[in-house]
Design a protein that fits this description.
The complex is a heterodimer of chains A (114) and B (114). Chain A is an all-beta fold and 114 residues long. Chain A contains no helices and eleven strands. In chain A, the strands form two sheets. In chain A, strands 2, 4, 5, 6, 9, 10 and 11 form a seven-stranded mixed beta sheet that branches. A four-stranded antiparallel beta sheet of chain A has the order 1-3-8-7, with no helix packed on it. The radius of gyration of chain A is 13 Å and the shape is globular. The relative contact order of chain A is 0.33. In chain B, a hairpin with a 2-residue loop joins strand 6 and strand 7. In chain B, the strands form two sheets. In chain B, strands 2, 4, 5, 9, 10 and 11 form a six-stranded mixed beta sheet that branches. With 114 residues, chain B is mainly β. Chain B contains no helices and eleven strands. The chains are: A mainly beta (114), B mainly beta (114). The interface between A and B is medium-sized, with 26 and 26 residues.
Amino acid sequence: NAGVTQTPKFRILKIGQSMTLQCTQDMNHNYMYWYRQDPGMGLKLIYYSVGAGITDKGEVPNGYNVSRSTTEDFPLRLELAAPSQTSVYFCASSPGGDSNYGYTFGSGTRLTVV
Amino acid sequence: DQQVKQNSPSLSVQEGRISILNCDYTNSMFDYFLWYKKYPAEGPTFLISISSIKDKNEDGRFTVFLNKSAKHLSLHIVPSQPGDSAVYFCAARGLGAGSYQLTFGKGTKLSVIP
């Protein structure tokens, strides 16, 4: 029972490079989310999806893009990496937006932009 | 502006004693409150939640209390164990842009001393 799987776990990018953070869930959850956590801060929502083909912006979407072609996958794309995007990124999923049991999170991707 | 505040960055407690983690919120439209636990290099995991129509919810050693008039909730852990040492995030659920979203506090690092 894998839950939410994120790859890679660590990555160092140079300014201006691009990359895709992968996220896959095997729980058939409709809702998926991308959060970032900066040191000493809470988690901030980047993008979310309520189902395949539907995505929407969260609190801090600038510099990122997402797609949701299948229920299982929700990749996060950084097009032109900037030092301000140095953070730990968490993908999460839930059965519905009103789940009373919260979200299932992946183990995170630690990204450093130099 | 922070809608969910955890004003204590850290807390140290002796094993066997009670741990009390506090959380304040400003948005009276939040309808559900959740606590997450996070170990280093792992994603947050759901711990316990409470509906805004209740004032207490208990699950084993964990109890969450909600004081709506004060916009305050607290997590009690009794008795505290060394394995409880982790960062605890308070989160509040609200309806935004047509979908429920979680807003997280900055977290409190709990250290349980053997």
